[in-house]
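Dear Dr. V.,

Thank you for agreeing to look over these. As mentioned in my earlier message, I'm a first-year student in the group and I'm still getting used to reading structure tokens, so any feedback on how I've presented them would be very welcome. I ran two proteins. I've put each sequence directly above its structure. The first is here:
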Amino acid sequence: MIIGKKRILLGSAGLLILIMAALMFSGCSTPPNAGPPTEVPGPATTDAEPNFVNTPDAPVTINSLRVQPAPMYYDVFIDYTNNTAKMISQTEFCVLLFDENGNPVFDTHAQGSAKFINSKKQLVPYGSMSGRWLVQLGTQKVKGHLVRVTFFDGTTWEDPGLVEWVEAEIAKY
């Protein structure tokens, strides 16, 4: 009698764990062959001006920057290219977050509306890469800028105009 109750209890607990795992993974996963979306619905695609700045002598060029709603956080996709003959070991971007009305969105992890995004993926010379990062719910528009590039040999490039760019964008609001 006790063994039968244990089997029912263990079976129920196992079934509950399977259901919870299925719900968690089905709502938050991306199919393995699904790349970043080519179009984002809503206000994020209606901006006439580009939402990123490329510094002329920068070793990395941002090709596209977009935001997409997701269940718990929103996703920011950045496509970028290495413009040098050197291997890159780390790339850092600054992304400013805005709501549908263009007001800054406070990101709880970044403790502000400027979120620094760091990619530690190695990027081959003249190669391109795409990355996906999480940002605060309610982010409908983003503006981005390259901050720093670290090369495989240990040398770094930093954008001298980053502070001026952030100040100019903040002055608009």
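The second protein is here, in the same arrangement:
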Amino acid sequence: MTDAIRKLQNRAAEIVQRVEAIRSMTREEGSEEQKTDATELDALTAESAEVSKKLDRENEIEEQVRSLKGKLSISEPKPAAPAIHVRSRGLAMPAEYRHWEEAGVTREGVDRIGHYLRALAHGETRAAIATNGATEEPNSHGELSPTYDGKGSELVFPDFYRGVLGLLNYASVAYQVCMTMSTSSNRITIPRSDENVEAQYYLENCEIEPVEIKTTGIQVNVEKIGARAQVSNELIDDAFAPVANLVATKFAYAFARKIDKSWLEGDAAAGVVGLLTAATESVTVGAKLTADNVVEAVSKLNPNAVNPVWVMSPAGMAMLQGLAAGAIGSDITKPTQMTIFGSPVYRCLSLPAGTLGLYGDFRQACVVVNRSNGLTINASRERAIEYDQTVYVGTQRFGVATMGPSYVVKLVK
């Protein structure tokens, strides 16, 4: 939408508002006020006709420019509302859609995302595909956008946003075990209290004794992180769904690695203190992990922990499997999630050397925050032209903070 159209629409809205206000007034027949209102109504009516004529003209020009830009694409021209039937063309197997469906995105949604990424690669305007996913509500700029869902996520398709976050739930251990929150700002303050409060019985007409709860505020800065993916132009032109799958997967796993590393080791540039630095309780493991090591870790955990879990490095997981295989009557082929004394075990690749694992209630120890309207996707065909590839750049805002390090115990060598 151009500035001219926006100004004309604003003026049209002002005219309508003023006309309705005048018509709602009750004036005495033949009074000066009635004559003044009639004169103003005549002027507003004439202006509204002129504004309407200019709007029609501006919209016609914008439609012609939009059509011309679509014809500048390297690929064949597409209609305003293209019919995408990826499944019938055999371009994507059902497995391509699996993680999208688990994230709540339909197959048709994946096709739209693939078409959107292809349009970005070809330099087509978003307006060219607006009819393939636009809503009836305008975004913050007054435009009907294919990326608007009425909740602030207007930078990419809502389905794309859900797909990337759905992949994060699989790829990032922090997303699986820590408290997760969304915000529309770049900073959030989380109230916190480590005190337990106990309710009381009370008699009729008697005061319920007050309990003072000491609280603190944990401030989390939601910082921008970025990732880049280079995709073959042949793949982009041949298939929609695999492009969406590839780009979303690359971005999600890149984001996941950065989030997990910041969660555990911190990031000085972003002001993040890692959990491994903040946590002070630890258990030293010898050449092999023993049941005594496990018991010691459990005994050192904060007694207020509710749902503790284990996060193990590959080396720690190998030690744990060796301990299980050495136990009497153990079945190392049992197809269930591994547990230690009933607590689930997660495998994490981001734990540094020397740290075998962590045990704790991570939902009380740490928080991961994402900005609900922070995911952006840009594309360039020129950046990797010598490889016949399109470069996609994705950015998103995430924040990581350690709130209660006493709720975690480290297993170290």
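From my reading of the second output: Confidence is low (pLDDT under 50) at residues 72-93, 125-155. The two ends are 61 Å apart (CA to CA). Does that match how you would interpret it?

Kind regards,
E.
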